């Protein structure tokens, strides 16, 4: 029996990769450590309020991605951010809408955290998965942040060829502290959000004005800057809230009911790999995601499409 091609991670890159390969007739299985799909395209509920806690919107600059995005719009999965004068796309009703739709029809195993990947004597892959049986794979394609992929390979004793190891090891990510704030009354945050280039806060948006949630007066996502997030990452939640809230007081405009912190250890890559993806046919091992070719959702998507194409050119062996 053929072992499947396993895609690790079901964020936008992993889902597009799995879909691309499945459409080409490849036997593909996705494994995702979380309960939901989408990775950093994430929506979090706090009581009655919903927040886009990770990516806030996306843009489509490359014609190939713009064509994909036009399809998503036709399906009703995305919309223009209503209040924004820029061409910014948001999920309908939230950023997880696209990943949820892309996951339809794929073989995806949730709550499957891959802890080690090792090569077997017969040249296959053996994946160790937390609290699950071993999963055998013919090919392994990582779509998670590169440091996470390298940790899984290191745990399996895999040594990458010298031709690719330094390039992969050079990819690192900024952290981002995301504070999700429920307010007692409407906020004073402009409907298209606030982007700040200086200080501890880099972004805030009101998810009620964005159209995510109707049952709360205001649900504000605050993203700390990369510098603040790195310096204060491990502080207790209350201390982080106490440092960030005074910075944005003038935009809150109502009493704070609750705060919830999400710590994104891997937010956006500091630098990206020069190639769109990395594929090692001799090992049946590939890498895609926003660490390759270009950052953000667009970069992650384009990287996945590139890896799907190149992997599909190497047919699975009959084993
Ligand atoms: C706070 C924040 C704000 C952002 N703002 C924007 C924005 O406004 N616009 C924009 O375009 N981009 C933004 N981004 C970046 C954007 O979200 C990412 O570039 C994009 O979503 C990356 O997709 P991906 O599929 O490459 O990775 P991810 O979304 O990280 O997906 C990787 C998946 O792999 C899973 N995984 C990891 N390790 C394992 C394992 N061992 N086993 C199984 N599964 C595993 C993870 O759970 C995750 O679901 C933002 C990101 C953050 C965090």
How does this structure look, described?
By secondary structure, the protein is of the alpha+beta class. It has 2 domains: 5-33 and 111-171 and 273-312, FAD/NAD(P)-binding domain (3-Layer(bba) Sandwich), CATH 3.50.50.60; 46-89 and 173-270, Alpha-Beta Complex (Polyamine Oxidase, Chain A, domain 2). It contains 9 helices and 18 strands. It has helices spanning 12-23, 63-75, 97-103, 146-155, 165-169, 226-232, 237-244, 249-252, 296-312; strands at residues 5-8, 28-31, 43-46, 49-52, 78-80, 89-91, 108-109, 114-119, 125-129, 135-137, 139-142, 173-183, 194-195, 201-206, 218-224, 256-269, 278-280, 285-287. Strands 7-2-1-11-18-17 form a 6-stranded mixed beta sheet, covered by helices on one side. Strands 13-14-15-12-16 form a 5-stranded antiparallel beta sheet, with helices on one face. A hairpin with a 5-residue loop joins strand 13 (194-195) and strand 14 (201-206). Helix 1 (12-23) runs parallel beside helix 9 (296-312). The longest helix has 17 residues, at 296-312. The radius of gyration is 20 Å and the shape is globular. It binds flavin-adenine dinucleotide (FAD). Flavin-adenine dinucleotide (FAD) is lined by residues 8-14, 31-34, 39-41, 54-58, 113-114, 143-145, 148, 152, 176, 178, 223, 264, 267-268, 289-290, 295-297, 300.
């Amino acid at each position: 029996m053929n072992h499947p091609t396993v895609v690790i991670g079901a964020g936008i890159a992993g889902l597009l990769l799995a879909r691309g390969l499945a459409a080409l007739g490849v036997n593909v299985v996705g494994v995702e450590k979380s309960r939901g799909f989408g990775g950093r395209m994430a929506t979090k509920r706090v009581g009655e309020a919903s927040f886009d806690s990770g990516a806030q919107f996306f843009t489509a600059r490359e014609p190939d991605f713009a064509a994909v995005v036009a399809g998503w719009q036709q399906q009703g999965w995305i919309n223009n951010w209503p209040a924004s004068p820029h061409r910014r796309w948001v999920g309908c009703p939230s950023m997880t809408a696209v990943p949820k739709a892309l996951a339809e029809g794929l073989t995806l195993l949730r709550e499957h955290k891959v802890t080690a990947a090792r090569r077997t004597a017969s040249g296959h892959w053996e994946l160790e998965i937390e609290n699950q049986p071993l999963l055998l794979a013919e090919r392994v394609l990582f779509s998670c942040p590169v440091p996470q992929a390298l940790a899984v390979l290191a745990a399996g004793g895999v040594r990458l060829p010298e031709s690719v190891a330094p390039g992969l090891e050079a990819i690192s990510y900024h952290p981002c502290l995301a504070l999700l704030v429920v307010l007692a009354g409407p906020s004073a945050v402009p409907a298209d959000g606030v982007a700040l280039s200086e200080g501890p806060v880099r972004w805030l948006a009101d998810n009620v004005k964005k159209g995510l949630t109707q049952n709360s007066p205001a649900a504000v996502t605050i993203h700390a800057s990369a510098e603040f997030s790195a310096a204060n990452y491990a502080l207790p939640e209350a201390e982080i809230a106490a440092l960030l809230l005074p910075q944005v007081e003038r935009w809150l405009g109502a009493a704070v009911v609750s705060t919830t912190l999400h710590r994104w250890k891997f937010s956006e890559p500091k630098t990206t790999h020069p190639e769109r993806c990395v594929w090692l046919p001799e090992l049946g091992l590939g890498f895609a995601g926003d660490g390759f070719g270009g950052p953000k959702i667009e970069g992650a998507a384009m990287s996945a499409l590139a890896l799907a194409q190149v992997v599909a050119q190497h047919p699975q062996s009959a084993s």
